[in-house]
Design goal:
Structural class: alpha/beta
CATH topology of the largest domain: Rossmann fold
Strand content: 15-25%
Number of strands: 15
Helix content: 25-40%
Number of helices: 11
CATH architecture of the largest domain: 3-Layer(aba) Sandwich
CATH superfamily of the largest domain: Diphthamide synthesis DPH1/DPH2 domain 3
Bound molecules: iron/sulfur cluster
Order of helices and strands: EHEHEHEEEHEHEEHEEHEHEHEHEH
C-alpha cells in the first residue's frame, strides 16, 4: 500500500476482537493519503463504520482521543508510539514503520565517523525496526554501538521534544538516522559531541556543526531582542501531550517578580495568524511544542522564545547554559527546567 507498514490485518483483527461498531482513524500529514483506502478495508472486512480525523496531526502529543471519545469505540493512531499519558478511550497505536533502505546513507556516514570508536545510535519511530540492522552494520565496520531508551521514549528513539535517550551516554559521537536537522541539533546541544546525520531521504550523510552554529546565532538574536520586553504572551497548548500549564504559571510568576507582565494564551494549534490580535505584547514564550520557536521562528513578527530562552532574556540563566527545550514525560512532571 505504501512505503510504510500500516499493519492493516492486525488492526482488523483487533477491531473484530473489540467488537467495535465505530472506528476512529488518525494519521499524521504524510500518511493521510492512505486514509480512505484504510477506511474502506476496515469497513468492508469488519462491518464497522469508520470516522477519519481530518484535522492536522502533529505528533505523538496530538492524539485525537478527546475528540473521538463518545464518537468512536476505538481510535487507531498511525505513525507514533504512545506517550505516557492517560488517554480518554482505547487507542491502538500503529508505528507505520518506514520500509526505506537505511544502509546506503549509513554507509555514507562511515567516513564522517572515522576516528570515533564508540557511537551512540538514535532514530525516530519510523526507522526503529531497522535500528538493529544499522547497529550490526556499524559493528561489522569496527564500531562499538550504544543504544539507550529514554523517559517516555523507547530503545533508540528521540522525539523533537524528548532527548532523554541520549543523555549521559558514554560515547564519542552520535549517529542520527533520519531526515532534517532538528533532532541532530538537539543531540548536539545536549551532549556537546559530534553528531552525524545519515539521511535516507536524501541518501546522504552530513555533520551537524554548521547548521547548529547558524541556529544558535538566530536564537541569540531573538533572545537579545526580547531582553527589553515588558509584556509577554505565554502560549499554552490544549493538546494533552503539549500542555504545560504549570510551566506557564511559573514563567508568569517569574516575569512578575522581575517587574514584567506575562499573559497566558491558551490555544489548540499555534500559528502566527492566531497571535495577530495580541501584537501589542512585546514578545511570546512557547510552552507548547518546543520545535515551533526554533523551526518557525521567522514566521513570527515578535520574538518567540522557549522557556529556557526567556530565562536568559531576563537574566535568570547564563548564555553558556543554553539548552534546547524539552517536554518531560514519563510521569516526571510537566515542568521543564
Ligand atoms: S510536542 Fe512537538 S516535538 Fe514533541 S511529539 Fe509533539 S509535535 Fe513532536
Amino acid at each position: 500500500m505504501s512505503g510504510h507498514e500500516l499493519e492493516i490485518d492486525e488492526i482488523i483483527k483487533r477491531v473484530k476482537e473489540l467488537k467495535a461498531g465505530t472506528v476512529g482513524l488518525q494519521f499524521p500529514e504524510g500518511l493521510k493519503l492512505h486514509a480512505v483506502e484504510v477506511a474502506r478495508r476496515i469497513e468492508v472486512e469488519t462491518g464497522a463504520t469508520v470516522i477519519i480525523s481530518a484535522d492536522p496531526c502533529f505528533g505523538a502529543c496530538d492524539v485525537a482521543d478527546v475528540d473521538m471519545n463518545g464518537v468512536a469505540d476505538v481510535l487507531v493512531h498511525f505513525g507514533h508510539k504512545p506517550l505516557p499519558l492517560n488517554y480518554d478511550m482505547p487507542v491502538i497505536f500503529v508505528d507505520a514503520s518506514s520500509k526505506m533502505e537505511l544502509l546506503g546513507s549509513v554507509g555514507n556516514a562511515m567516513s564522517l565517523l572515522e576516528g570515533y570508536k564508540k557511537i551512540g545510535l538514535v532514530t525516530t519511530v519510523q526507522h526503529l525496526k531497522q535500528l538493529e540492522e544499522v547497529a550490526e552494520f556499524l559493528e561489522q565496520n569496527g564500531k562499538e554501538v550504544v543504544i539507550n531508551e529514554g523517559a517516555g521514549t523507547t530503545w533508540g528513539q528521540v522525539l523533537g521534544c524528548n532527548f532523554s535517550s541520549i543523555k549521559n551516554l558514554d560515547v564519542e559521537a552520535f549517529l542520527y538516522v533520519g531526515s532534517g536537522n532538528f533532532h541532530a541539533l538537539g543531540i548536539t546541544l545536549f551532549t556537546d559531541k559530534p553528531v552525524i546525520i545519515a539521511d535516507p531521504y536524501l541518501d546522504e550523510a552530513r555533520l551537524i556543526t554548521d547548521f547548529s552554529d547558524r541556529i544558535l546565532r538566530i536564537r541569540f538574536a531573538r533572545i537579545a531582542k526580547a531582553m527589553d520586553a515588558k509584556t509577554f504572551g505565554i502560549i499554552v497548548s490544549t493538546k494533552k501531550g503539549q500542555n504545560r500549564l504549570d510551566t506557564a504559571k511559573e514563567l508568569k510568576n517569574l516575569l512578575n517578580a522581575e517587574g514584567r507582565e506575562g499573559f497566558i494564551l491558551l490555544l489548540d494549534d499555534v500559528s502566527p495568524e492566531k497571535l495577530l490580535p495580541y501584537m501589542d505584547l512585546d514578545a511570546f514564550v512557547m510552552t507548547a511544542c518546543p520545535r515551533i520557536a526554533i523551526d518557525d521562528s521567522s514566521r513570527y513578527k515578535k520574538p518567540l522564545l522557549t522557556p529556557q530562552e526567556l530565562e536568559i532574556a531576563i537574566g535568570k540563566r547564563e548564555w553558556e547554559n543554553y539548552e534546547i527545550d524539552e517536554i518531560k514525560y514519563g510521569g516526571l512532571n510537566n515542568k521543564n527546567k
